[in-house]
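call fold(seq) -> tokens
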Amino acid sequence: MRQRKSYNSEFKAKIATEAIKGQKTVQEIANHYGVHPNQVGQWKKQAIEHLPEIFSDRRAKEQQSEEELKAQLYQQIGQLQMELEWFKKKSGLCR
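ret:
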């Protein structure tokens, strides 16, 4: 029984990029890299389908990390304010 070939993501991206460019036919790309033409077509289709996610995910992640940072900072501010009030009461500065 023949074992299936496994390709890394860089290899797939390289082939998909060539297919998207359209400078060579799918058959030419497949022959050059030793993969089946259907596989080249599938990788091209996957790349095109996932392009919008690449750009939207970055913005969403940046916004989410900013919101998380804000929440942490507000929590820290609240904690420091409570500690300050506690120290004022203990030292007798607040009456």
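The CA atoms of residues 19 and 44 lie 6 Å apart.
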